[in-house]
Amino acid sequence: MMTPGVKALEDEIESRVDAGDRFAGLFATRPTQGVGVAGFAPVTLSAHVSTPGGIDTLEASLPPGAESYPALTPRLGAAFWYEREIHDTFGVVPEGHPRLAPLVRPGSPETPGDRALPRHVTGYGMFTIPHGPVRSGVLESIEYLVETPGEAIPHLNMRVFYKHRGVQDAFNGMTPADGVLLAERTEGIASVAHALAFSHAIEQIAGCEPPTTAQLVRVLHAELERIANHLDVAGRLADAAGLAVATARLALHKERVMRLVSRLCGSRFGRGVVVPGGITAAPLLPPAQLRAELDRLAKPIAADAAALMATSSFLDRLRGTGPLTPERARQHGALGPIGKAAGFADDARLARPYDAYRALVVPSARSHVAGDALARLRVRWEEVDQSFRLLRQVADDLAERAPDLYSVTCEPASGRAVGWAEAPQGEVLYDVSIEAGRIARCHPRSASFHNLVLMHEVFTGDILTDFPFIEASFGLSVAGVAL
Amino acid sequence: MSIWVLRGLRDGVATTRWPARPDDYADTWRGPARPLPAAFSSDPEAALKALCPTGAIAAEPGGNVRVDQGKCILCGRCVAERPDVFAWSQGATGPGAAALTPNQLIVPELPETDEAVEAARARLRERTAALRRSVHIRHVDAGSDGSEEWEIQALLGPVYDVHRLGVFFTASPRHADVLLVTGAGARGMTVPLRTTYDGMPDPKIVIAAGTDAVSGGLLSQSDMTTGGIAATVPVDIWLAGSPPSPFGIINALLVAVGKLAPDPPPARMMTGPRGGRRSR
To answer: For a designed S-S bond to A50, which of A22, A479, B136, B275 qualifies (C-beta 3.0 to 4.6 A apart)?
Structure first.
């Protein structure tokens, strides 16, 4: 197949984005066999563009042997991290990219003294606070280089590569059945969403459709995962504000949600449920008991959420903190609660529904424009409420249904497809290629990867003590960024 | 603020008394897969091995089946496909929880493991003798998937509340007695992990928390990991699980600091006022 050049790809993405589509990702592949000597095989750029009905893939091949191409980032800011990842992985240079430092793969070790110097903002009294990769709490490894004159944060630099695990390469050669296990462990706190996005891609290639019961159970676990994640974020925000009782209450609710998940499937993270073609087994709790458990959870969570959102000392710390403008959210295509809080709501459950979301009534959400940490938390509480309503529908539907099959045969031969799912952090994409029944290439794109880069931009007027609030309000996982 | 005082009293005491008292959730916890007692299979060796995505299953030509729980990612495929040979471990302190050598995670145990375990126990006892009632933990993420961090954070919540056991988390390696490491051993974390370890005062104890930290799990073959953290720091306690349960982590912590013997039957652990037999 002839593919257009990089310039044509750039024009195409730009016109699509101008027309209202969303830039959803960019990655490169270099076939290891087929065209000439492996090392000289041409690199292909693949861009994902999200449309109201699905995800389109646009491609451009570099000329064979080309070691560089004109960067997309100057015109398409959202490609900033994607092109750094391409540079890390293949050594191909996007010419004109503003900053090609290592992002996902650790570069050569540098002398420790280097990082203590401010790099982007210079002047009298400017210094850099390196924070990480070993953090002060029980957190994932990431390094923040905070450039500051003392309180303000004129520039923030993030280094995520410390915990790069080589997930993408590990998919190669796996069977789809093994691949879904790795997808669950790509971003552990969004195991279900990753397993879903991966399975959707496989199901598209195989041309199969999971049975209705399986679709309902998938929604059940996806929504419980969302509630647990949002409770986690709210708890971290309360902790940052020093609200000991609120922190404990929210941790208690989160633990109860995770225990419900483990009573349903044996795993506290909903692992081992979703497989290509359906689910592995029926929920271990009967629907009536599930319904009762949901009611028992929902009420105290709503009450504590209301109390938290009426605690003025807490709200003072969130209001106006870490604001993302609606304009930037739209330009970047900000995903999940971060986008929704800034007026850019592209929820895959509504825009590109999958599984039982097609049949269920997804309650509509209020729109927000403030884009600050407070708006992000409000979005999360609304999503929790929305999730409980969905879950009640699911429990009722499961109660009415006669037991049927939990999965259909799903054995893809060859092909390529993009699968998606709405994780608690936002849309997750899996671009999967299958050859002779095995994974030839799998490119996961988490919402965390797409959204984390926005943290560079939200420190306008915020100071060092706002940092934990902003980090927690983003609610992302480093594992999904560094892969 | 006063609303929070009242809200805090709402549910009474949510904290478990485990391990001093039994806890239903801990006892029914679904741990890694294990072969059924005297599991014997006449299947060709390869057929059983092929069930496991991480190669945790070994079938001897004679028919004995063993599971290396240090490699088990709890996917449950072997249990689902061959319930006549495999089952889940039950309880957070069952076989394979908090082992002193990687081979001790193999069920049923290998005949030669005992000696190695005894030697490891002696080494550990030497160091735990210096620890008093309270210990401080430094956690390092060496390439986890993020779920292990959630389970460790849960220990600080009201349900598990490890402060009741004298366990505290510290930001500085200088205050730490125990290094709790998660993740498959990402190469980028090799230097930070080693620096943290070197920064801790002696005596120090290292826990590999989770199947990823023990063996690398599904990423054991990745060029970007060291296939477990033992390549970077000397591990004392090996804890399987993907991720391990909060109870499993508490158990490993108590074993690490000598408050629990490493592998008595669970019943014995639950006697005694504060966690049963002590090594001192």
So the answer is: A22
Question: In Å, how far are A215, A216, A355, B52, B81 from A406, measured between CA atoms?
Answer: 9, 10, 13, 22, 15
Size of interface A-B (CB pairs under 8 A): 179
Which of B4, B30, B186 minimises the CB distance to A163? B186
pLDDT at A196 over 70: yes
pLDDT class of B82 with cuts at 50, 70, 90: confident
Verify whether the Cβ–Cβ distance A269 to B171 is below 8 Å. no
Distance from the Cα of A216 to chain B's closest Cα (Å) equals 21
A244 neighbors A437 (Cβ within 8 angstroms): no
E strand or H helix that includes residue A49: strand A44-50
Distance from C-alpha of A325 to C-alpha of A371, rounded to nearest angstrom? 6
- The pLDDT-based confidence of A401 (bands split at 50, 70, 90) is confident
Q: Residue B48 — very low, low, confident or very high, per pLDDT cuts 50/70/90?
A: confident
The distance of A14 to chain B (nearest Cα, Å) reads 34
Residue at which a domain ends, from A95, A120, A152: A95
This complex has an ipTM of 0.91
Query: Are A353 and A380 in the same domain?
Result: yes
Alpha helices by DSSP H, listed for chain B, are: 2-9, 24-27, 45-49, 77-81, 113-128, 147-154, 190-199, 211-215, 246-256, 266-269
Do the chains contact at A185 and B218, CB–CB below 8 Å? yes
Q: Which domain holds residue A298?
A: 168-450
Q: Domains of chain B, with CATH numbers?
A: 24-92 (3.30.70), 113-269 (3.40.50.12280)
Nearest Cβ partner of B158 from A109, A252, A477?
A252
Contact (CB, 8 A) for B141 and B183: yes
Nearest to B231 by CA among B191, B180, B196, B172: B191
Chain A CB contacts of B142 below 8 Å? 141, 163
Which residues have CB under 8 Å from A364's CB, separation 6+? none
Sign of the Cα torsion A94, A100, A103, A104 reads: positive
Q: State the pTM of this model.
A: 0.92
